[in-house]
Amino acid sequence: MDLAYLWFWIVGFLFVGYFVLDGFDFGVGMSLPFLGKDDIGRRQIINTIGPVWDLNETWVIVAGACLFAAFPEWYATLFSGFYLALLLILLALIARGVSFEYRHQKDDLKWKSRFDWMIVIGSAVPALLWGVAVANIVQGVPINADHEFTGSLLTLLNPYGLLGGLTTLLLFFTHGVYFVALKTDGQVHQDARRLARRSGLLTIVVAAAFLVWTIFIAARYGAPLLVWVIALAALAAIFLVLSWVFNLRDREGWAFGFGAATVMAAVLTLWTALFPNVMPSTTDPAYSLTIENASSTDLTLQIMSWAALVFLPLVLAYQGWTYWVFRKRVSRSRIEKAAAAAH
């Protein structure tokens, strides 16, 4: 296989990892107003991702770095054209990270409430805008002969892009609520299960509409892997329904697992629909960025391949070890004892 094609799928794998892992982070953050009935409950929710949120976020840094090295033309067009959307995502991620670190620095409810809302907004904005961005990449955007994006932020806010954003918002929210149910006990656990029932149904409807639209777009472009697009979209739908069913049966581990599989299958559906383009042009198909005309030299890709072969397994092993160490539930009683001891 040509190394450029290999790296198209490696970059896709990195974005799959990012959306699966940071996706439930976003969902946990967005769930605060719905599940955190008091400060102890909100601390319980935040502590479910406290040890792992920053590790999850590094996936997008690695994915962006690999995109820059393997596909510099794609990186240049994407980051210059989608500059405002990506800047809003970056600012939201900064606000969320600051909130995690500063929320507990002062024992004042108003202080904590402000940072709680920063967590909510800092989670919702990326969850929405990542979907808008990826949907527009798949659908195609106006690109000229110099591979420059000629639209604006409003260009991205088209019906398909907004539906993609709403889909990721709801998908990540439900995925995060499953994680809260998996990692907590008591009232928060029960409330999370009930919330996931409602949000799961809405997610199924919206995601189904988005996946069907994606299949039509792939068919319109004559995607060579259209059969795989349809198969992956069907898998994503099945996994999403199964996650909802297992949540109904109070099997939160299975619900979360199938929720993660849903995100994985959905992202792979979009990635497969894109192939062999990396950024289709709606101005003229001849101006589209493809795997071949957007990639780096063979020497660059060879060096990257050897580096990935060595370091990627180490990163995966470290991430797995981290989740194993922090696998236990976050109990309300332990947080109450810690709060009492602090006073």
From TrEMBL:
The keyword Transcription does not apply. It is a multi-pass membrane protein. The keyword Isomerase does not apply. The chain crosses the membrane at residues 6-32, 77-95, 115-139, 159-181, 201-219, 225-246, 253-274, 303-326. InterPro entries: Cyt-d_oxidase_su2. It holds the Pfam family Cyt_bd_oxida_II. It is found in: Cell membrane. Keywords: Cell membrane, Electron transport, Heme, Iron, Membrane, Metal-binding, Transmembrane, Transmembrane helix, Transport. NCBIfam families: cydB (TIGR00203). Belongs to the cytochrome ubiquinol oxidase subunit 2 family. This is Cytochrome d ubiquinol oxidase subunit II. The lineage of its organism: Bacteria, Bacillati, Actinomycetota, Actinomycetes, Micrococcales. The gene is cydB.
